[in-house]
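Something for you to look into today, if you have time. I want to see for myself how the chain folds. Leave the record below and I will have a look.
***
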Amino acid sequence: MKILVTGSAGHLGEALVRTLQGTGHEVLGLDILASPFTQVVGSITDRSLVRECMAGVQAVLHTATLHKPHVATHTRQDFVDTNITGTLNLLEEAAAADVGRPGDGTGGFVFTSTTSAFGRALSASGGAAAWITEDVVPVPKNIYGITKVAAENLCELFTQRQGLPCVVLRTSRFFPEADDNRAVRAALEDVNTKANELLYRRADIADMVSAHLLAMDKARAIGFGRYIISASTPFVHSDLAALHQHAPSVLARYFPDYVALYAQRGWKMFDSIDRVYVNDKARAELGWQPRYGFAHVLACLREGVDYRSPLAQAVGSKGYHSEVFEDGPFPVE
């Protein structure tokens, strides 16, 4: 099967191409930046280039995007051009090329969205953390979220009107860069922060890749679907008030030995957790089984090894801008 991967020089795009290489599939990486995992250098806003790349393609893994770190450095029009028009170009050319057509077995259009699309709906209220499932209605709070939701809706439209199988994956954090919040950076080691986030708002890039490949394989059977992709949380709905009030005491009920393991490293748990991403639908309908959750972190702490997957370590940190900023990994709007 021929697979087009957009954003192939980015974190997820590279991880997908790395994983697909040597599997028997023909992989075509498209990105505005040259990289060892990019065969075509160009933009998804270039309709004629997109058309050329779509020739013979049976599946599209669309990861190319302007991200939240670009909000302060790019215009709203830049976001519309890349995240909406670029996605529309891909959808129209995929439909014209009959991507995911019957008779080809697997294949379809997989769109990498973001849990940032939920926006203000992520805020804790009533003294309790927010329980985030696919039923929560997004309330985008910036141009990034707005354009990603619009692109999701385009995907749904193309399934309804063109019969193009589309799966939208609302991915939680998987970037390796430091947190953009100065207070978070000052309070905890970065590896400590990311370990904590695997409880409720993060996933390892290897698990992100496996979700995308499952979505690609099942797109035709699903038709259209939206899924939250985040590491499996140990928490349940009845924990929400306590998580917001004092998260360490809740965590100690699930993982009693975490206290000693964290103390050995000088790590801390967040005092409060404001939301919990729930991946039940993705596990049930995609058959997704994320491997790199908080239990894995603790196992690695016991063994004294890196809790990141080999794929996460291989891809490493890329940053989002060509320049280096004085205060933080990227400027905040």
The mean pLDDT is 93.
